[in-house]
Amino acid sequence: MRIAQIAPLAEAVPPKLYGGTERVIWWLTEALVDLGHDVTLYASADSDTSARLVPCADQALRLAGINDHLASTIAMLRRVMEDADKFDAIHFHIDFVHFPIFMNKPDNVFTTLHGRLDIPAFWPAFEAYPEMKLVSISDNQRLPMPNASFVKTIYHGLPEHLIPFNGQSGEYLAFLGRISPEKRPDRAIEIAKRTGTKLKMAAKVDHADRAYFESEIEPLLDDPLIEFIGEIDDRRKPEFLGNAKALLFPIDWPEPFGLVMIEAMAAGTPVVAWRNGSTPEVIEDGRNGFLVESIDEAVAAVERLGDLPRSGVRGAFEDRFTARRMAQDYVNLFETARGRSAGRRSEPLLLAH
């Protein structure tokens, strides 16, 4: 198939620093190429891909210091529109800004929504364009918009060899993510103290959360069990997750997916997660982790981690959360929507300039 992937211009694909959506787009694009499809990626010029790259900004806009991305995004959509008839599937990852332009081409246009949808200010856009096909990243993500035009839920996946399996359990609990009220790092700290287990916190502190960190979390760090590492990059993540006894995911918000859970699973590290948002869809309780609803339950779960073979945790990842599986799910969706039989190939395209 001839497939267009349209990425946000805030970050490169893959991102140089932070950027979960752009990282998923990269994994998906590379997996589609590996499956033999003719893929074109519309993204910033500093992106790195095996697909055909159409540069739509000189560099990632956030790192260039550009805060308003609308003008560059609209310019990118003009380029996509000029090439639209040459693709079998056009796959957007930019929320809803393209809806007015592509509303008359709904048959092969798909939009994956990567963020939370429980914000009423977003809803009018989806209500006004019911012809646009939407893909959710968890069934729970859909709940605030039950009447929206969702055609499929497709879970994220990552490359099988990105994070190596570590069959040996470590001695510390891991917290990985942002320091923010909805991520509940305070819960992670309390669990570590009550179980007498070391906690390593690899977490970034955004400017918006600085006051919360200084007033609520920093005073809790003065304990020999708690080690605050700060933000880590992708090179350090496999070792950090692989050497952990478990990942704590004590969220207090409707998480749409939660990439860190499957990153931990890839390493064979089980996840202790609050039953919120997507976690019941990702965590198979008693196989790749435990679902809890209180500190007491989390403490009990940590004490039961020895019941979970790390090979079984890795197996749960391989069964459901690889990039190849994600890519094949999208191909199946595209082919079904277009009425194509699986495996049909098309001639390479020549893009408009």
TrEMBL record:
Domain called Glycosyl transferase family: residue spans: 171-304
Keyword vocabulary terms for this entry: Transferase
InterPro entries: Glyco_trans_1, Glyco_trans_4-like_N
All residue ranges annotated as the Glycosyltransferase subfamily 4-like N-terminal domain in the record: 18-120
Single GO term (MF): glycosyltransferase activity
The protein's name in its UniProt record: Glycosyltransferase family 4 protein
